[in-house]
């Protein structure tokens, strides 16, 4: 929010496995894999636009638990400046069936 108004120009979410999220997160931060169930589902939400508060960022990524295989307290986030976080685009969204399947392809 800026001046009490939402100012994001783009908000997208994807449902991914913890393993997929962790692989992409390690690309950015060098984080080590922990003992979390790698098949657990997490929501990853990307916000593009000014964020104010503790950090002034142009984009933010937030990941939160989506099923019982991971603690409902689990969360990861990061923010930065510059262009849209391209690593978000590396994630495949599991919340929608693939269009190829709907078209009869493989």
Question: Any overview of this molecule?
Answer:
The protein is α+β, with helices and mostly antiparallel strands. It contains three helices and four strands. The model has no long low-confidence stretch (mean pLDDT 80). The longest helix has 12 residues, at 18-29. It has helices spanning 18-29, 86-89, 99-102; strands at 10-17, 41-51, 57-65, 75-80. The protein has one domain (10-96).
- Enumerate the spans where pLDDT stays under 50 for 5 or more consecutive residues: none
How many domain regions?
Answer: 1
Q: Trace the largest sheet across and list its strands.
A: 1-2-3-4
**Outline:** globular
Nearest-integer average pLDDT: 80
- Fraction of residues in helix: 10-25%
Secondary structure category: alpha+beta
Radius of gyration: 15 Å
Distance between the termini: 42 Å
Oligomer class: single chain
The description of the largest β-sheet is: 4 strands, antiparallel
Total strands: 4
Write down the secondary-structure element order: EHEEEHH
How many helices?
3
Percent strand? 25-35%
Set down the secondary structure blueprint.
Elements: E1 10-17, H1 18-29, E2 41-51, E3 57-65, E4 75-80, H2 86-89, H3 99-102
What are the key terms here?
single chain; 106 residues; alpha+beta; four-stranded antiparallel sheet; 4 strands; 19% helix; 32% strand; globular
In a nutshell, what does this entry contain?
The protein is α+β, with helices and mostly antiparallel strands and 106 residues long.
């Amino acid at each position: 929010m800026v001046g009490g108004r939402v100012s994001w120009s783009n908000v997208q979410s994807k449902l991914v496995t913890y393993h997929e999220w962790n692989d992409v997160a390690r690309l950015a931060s060098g984080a080590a894999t922990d003992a979390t169930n790698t098949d657990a589902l997490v929501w990853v939400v990307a916000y593009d636009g000014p964020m104010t508060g503790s950090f002034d960022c142009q984009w933010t990524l937030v990941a939160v638990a989506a099923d019982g295989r991971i603690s409902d307290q689990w969360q990861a986030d990061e923010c930065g400046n510059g262009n849209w976080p391209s690593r978000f685009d590396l994630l495949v969204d599991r919340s929608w069936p693939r269009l190829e399947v709907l078209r009869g392809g493989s």
